[in-house]
Design goal:
By secondary structure, the chain is an alpha+beta fold. Among the domains are: 68 residues, Laminin (Ribbon), CATH 2.10.25; 60 residues; 185 residues, Jelly Rolls, CATH 2.60.120. The protein has 10 helices and 45 strands. The strands form 16 sheets. A 6-stranded mixed sheet has the order 14-19-18-10-9-15, covered by helices on one side. Helix 5 runs antiparallel to helix 10. It is globular, with a radius of gyration of 33 Å. The relative contact order is 0.08.
Length: 672
């Protein structure tokens, strides 16, 4: 058995080896195309992602969005009216920017009691949001508020953006020592600014110091966006709306000035679940205590593991702690838990979402159960109503049913699919039903539909498209990108979508320009071009783009027997063109550049018929591992000594070693 999974670039995501075969699998939210490649599924093209209003596709996932004045239901699909104040529900506590001054040194900390989101972007950067924006925009992290606001917003919020810089520090969110936290508690508060929403991004980059031998200097850049809500209760006879706005703008500006001073002296902290964190530390600080894993992770069995849903990372104890009763956490690697909508402090610990909160209200909801497909209710839970004629609902726990459209009725009440709608014509795969014209429309280029009687076409995954309209399968989706890696010593060229069939009407150009005094050796393990096309698909290699330049190789047919050859010119211009006719698997062609002193030896080897005579030798030229080893030694002859005699014996058949040895000996010692 050949373990294809041991080769480079076999599968984009996960490879499973079987006796005599292998299989590629994709991560959740991705689908397979071209046999080995994975592309993002556009869930929004599949019945609008089953979203009530809008759908936003993301890499590996998607989100439903709601119009102004509405918010997402707990099922994350339906839009419900925004309730300003639930009975007996506590309003969400606001974030607070608290600054103080002791001994001429300013110190600030940001308290984040609810609606927090921590996203580690990379090893040295992270994004942190706190609170809920009054008007959610695309640039801000989307997070549903779990606790309603019980005050009326008077006018658009006050927004301010500020940038800060910390020299010689890395963006690592680390807990403060207990001694320092105690000392900060003794300071007198000089300013307290309630903030509706904060979005903070910390990014580290190395700045080269003057002088060649000076080490790079770490600089942390912090970008902070603040949003403050204006409230009706603050307007009075002596201070109207404009007056309140100016006061609040001045207060926020003053707080940001103090914050800038505190950041410059590294005296800015963020508070989650009673623990204060430093936003960035100097290298000496970064090595203290909890340096083994990133924030939001703990060390288990020698590996860094992200804190799971239902828990939060406690910097004080450096461990994942279950959410306390009355709180929940539906995102991994967070620094706090969110309060439940009806927070009576009852229920179980470790709630992973709102429905698991465990309060009295939610315990009743769980006992009632969700509505089954074909049914709905005002909150998605029992008692439920059956979907009336002319509507359907394929999912459980929904607050609405989707209309068939165009005055169509369903075969029965409680329909669970558009296929239950009595359409005037029955659409075959590759088509979708238009409820306005009551006709079957061919799926446009770049989409497909494998099922009968559907009212949508699925967008091709990733950056792929189809050769024609009316496609019926994801295998018709092809990557148009010309593949390959062109290195000075080794590289390869690859037909688009390889090893899947290449697309129609594509043209690829590659240029191989080796370093001085080096020549090019090419191996074509196999090539699949349909011969019934009368040379419509062609691969050609020549000195330049000029049709009259020296040609090294040209073919428009399928060859399953491998061939090796040296370039007839020092540089190679390679072109692949396909027409609109039949397609094929194409090719993956590796090459190596070698010292021109070996030109005579290499040509002697590749022109010898014994190299291709036996099936064993042909398999060598098709084996990616063996070709890589041969090319490694050809590109850098000293690498021959990396391989022991036993390794060479196990890698290559005896006849092959014998053939090479005789030619190398004759080349190096011609007179012996």
């Amino acid at each position: 058995d050949i373990d294809e999974c041991s080769f480079e670039r076999t599968c984009d995501h996960t490879c499973i080896n079987y006796p005599g075969s292998f299989e590629c699998l994709c991560h959740k939210g991705y689908t397979l195309y071209g046999l080995t490649h994975c592309g993002d599924i556009d869930e929004c093209s599949i019945s609008n992602g089953s979203c009530d209003f809008g759908c936003l596709n993301t890499m590996g996932s998607y989100e439903c969005v709601c119009p102004p004045g509405k918010k997402l239901h707990w099922n994350k699909k339906d839009c419900v009216e925004t309730v300003k104040c639930l009975p007996n529900a506590k309003p969400a506590p606001k974030a607070q920017l608290v600054c103080s001054k002791t001994g001429g040194i300013e110190s600030c900390f940001l308290s984040c009691p609810s609606n927090t989101l921590f996203v580690p972007d990379s090893e040295n950067s992270y994004t942190l949001s706190c609170g809920v924006p009054v008007q959610q925009g695309k640039a801000q992290p989307r997070r549903n508020s779990t606790l309603p606001s019980c005050s009326d917003s008077l006018a658009p919020p006050i927004k301010q953006k500020a940038r800060f810089k910390i020299k010689d520090a890395k963006c690592h969110l680390r807990p403060r020592s207990k001694e320092k936290t105690k000392d900060s508690g003794k300071q007198a508060v000089s300013d307290n600014c309630q903030v509706t929403f904060v979005n903070l991004k910390c990014d580290s980059s190395k700045k080269k110091r003057r002088g060649r031998k000076s080490p790079s200097k770490e600089v942390s850049h912090i970008t902070a966006e603040f949003e403050v809500e204006m409230k009706s209760e603050e307007v009075s006879d002596t201070c109207n709306i404009d007056c309140v706005r100016k006061r609040m703008e001045q207060k926020l500006q003053t707080a940001i000035k103090t914050l800038r001073k505190s950041i410059n002296k590294q005296q800015f902290y963020i508070q989650f679940s009673g623990t204060e964190y430093e936003v960035a530390q100097k290298p000496a600080k970064a090595t203290e205590g909890h340096e083994a894993c990133s924030t939001g992770q703990v060390l288990q069995d020698g590996k860094c593991v992200t804190c799971s849903t239902g828990t939060f990372y406690s910097g004080e104890h450096n461990q994942c702690v279950p959410c306390s009763p009355g709180t929940f956490q539906d995102t991994e690697g967070q620094l706090t838990c969110e309060p439940c909508p009806s927070n009576d402090g009852q229920g179980v610990a470790g709630a992973r979402n709102v429905s698991e909160c465990g309060g009295k209200l939610n315990l009743i909801i769980k006992a009632l159960g969700q509505c089954s497909p074909g049914h709905y209710s005002s909150d998605g839970f029992k008692p439920c109503t059956v979907c009336p004629l002319g509507t359907y609902q394929p999912e459980p726990g929904r607050t609405l049913c989707f209309p068939c459209g165009g005055g169509l009725v369903t075969k029965y009440e409680g329909a669970v699919s558009f296929q239950d709608c009595e359409t005037k014509v029955h659409c075959s795969p590759g088509h979708y039903y238009n409820s306005t014209t009551h006709r079957c429309i061919r799926c446009p280029v770049g989409t497909y539909q494998p099922e009968f009687g559907q009212n949508y076409c699925i967008t091709c995954p990733g950056n792929t498209s189809t050769d024609f309209d009316g496609s019926t399968n994801v295998t018709h989706c092809k990557n148009q990108h010309c593949g390959g890696e062109l290195g000075d010593y080794t590289g390869y060229i690859e037909s688009p979508n390889y090893p899947g069939d290449y697309p129609a009407n594509v043209e690829c150009i590659w240029n191989i320009n080796p370093p001085p005094k080096r020549r090019i050796l090419i191996v074509v393990p196999e090539i699949f071009l349909p011969i019934e096309d009368e040379c419509g698909d062609v691969l050609v290699m020549r000195k330049s783009a000029s049709p009259t330049s020296i040609t090294t190789y040209e073919t428009c047919q399928t060859y399953e027997r491998p061939i090796a050859f040296t370039s007839r010119s020092r540089k190679l211009w390679i072109q692949f063109k396909s027409n609109e006719g039949n397609s094929g698997k194409g090719f993956q062609v590796p090459y190596v550049t070698y010292d021109e002193d070996y030109q005579q030896l290499i040509e002697d080897i590749v022109r010898d018929g014994r190299l291709y005579a036996s099936e064993n030798h042909q398999e060598i030229l098709k084996d990616k591992k063996l070709i890589k080893a041969l090319f490694d030694v050809l590109a850098h002859p000293q690498n021959y000594f990396k391989y022991t005699a036993q390794e060479s014996k196990e890698m290559f058949p005896r006849s092959f070693i014998k053939l090479l040895r005789s030619k190398v000996s004759r080349f190096l010692r011609p007179y012996k």
